[in-house]
Design goal:
This is F-box protein At3g26010-like beta-propeller domain-containing protein. The chain has 1 helix and 19 strands. It has about 250 residues and is mainly beta. Strands 7, 8, 9, 10 and 11 form a 5-stranded antiparallel beta sheet that branches. The chain has a 4-stranded antiparallel beta sheet with strand order 3-4-5-6, with no helix packed on it. The longest helix is centred in the last third of the chain and has 8 residues.
Length: about 250
């Protein structure tokens, strides 16, 4: 199902196609492609991977216009393994994190457009998985904590990058901040969990998982959000939408 929590309306999708060679392939990663500024129509993508080597082989795409699923083979030449992280829809493409098995496990962003015919991979800064993606100001953004030269998990700074253009495969640097400077303000160490949809602000959770904070990368200012009662590890951005229902949504 696809649901709008703000209105309580939902759409039940038909069963998706069974993977080819079902003993060897399966779908475990799904993403919603929906931009209310463009249309009330949406797509749901489920990515097909092999069971043993776990690399991307294809994608099933549901369209609310046709109310049907279609399947396309992966358009990535290299063997890409998907990470079970969030998907981000921006500029007509759905992006998620992955890595390339043939290039020393280098981490990349994998993008696919809604017909499954155009694919691309984008190398991420430092080749590191310690980052998060988001849609901000109409562009794909990537926030990452850099590591030292020995590739140890010794964080020195946090940087914010954005995609140079919708057809580009290059991330360009927008802002950086020193971890020492951040710690001097907060007295805690943090990791990046989200990116603000409308400005150059990142959201951070403390390593203890008990504090959520916002950091304005442009003005280098910290704003505390709240203290967390539990050790929270996963976060999702949520912007209530009341103006337009999902296409084909019923009144339930």
């Amino acid at each position: 199902m696809v649901c709008n929590p703000a209105t309580g309306r939902w759409v039940e999708l038909p069963p998706q196609p069974q993977p080819q060679e079902p003993a060897n392939r399966y779908s475990r990663t799904a993403g919603l492609a929906f931009d209310p500024a463009v249309s009330s129509h949406f797509h749901v993508l489920t990515f097909e991977e092999t069971n043993l080597e776990a690399y991307l082989t294809g994608v099933n795409i549901y369209s609310s216009r046709t109310r049907a699923w279609s399947r396309m083979d992966s358009g990535i030449v290299e063997k890409a393994t998907l990470l079970r992280s969030k998907c981000v829809f921006v500029g007509g493409m759905l992006y998620l994190m992955g890595n390339l098995e043939d290039i020393n496990g280098e981490y990349v962003l994998v993008g696919v457009e809604m017909e499954g015919k155009v694919w691309k991979t984008i190398r991420v800064p430092y080749g590191s998985k310690f980052g998060t993606i988001g849609s901000s100001q109409g562009c794909l953004h990537y926030a990452v904590a850099s590591v030292d030269d020995n590739n140890e998990i010794l964080v020195s700074e946090i940087s914010l990058w954005c995609l140079k253009g919708q057809d580009s495969k290059e991330l360009v640097l927008k802002h950086t901040t020193s971890i020492d400077k951040l710690m001097s303000m907060t007295r805690k160490t943090y990791r990046v969990v989200e990116i603000h949809p409308d400005c150059d602000t990142i959201f951070l959770v403390s390593n203890e998982g008990d504090t959520l904070a916002a950091y304005d990368m442009r003005h280098q200012k910290v704003g505390y959000i709240l203290n967390l009662e539990n050790n929270t590890q996963q976060f999702l951005p949520y912007v209530p939408l009341f103006s337009e229902p999902l296409a084909d949504a019923n009144e339930q």
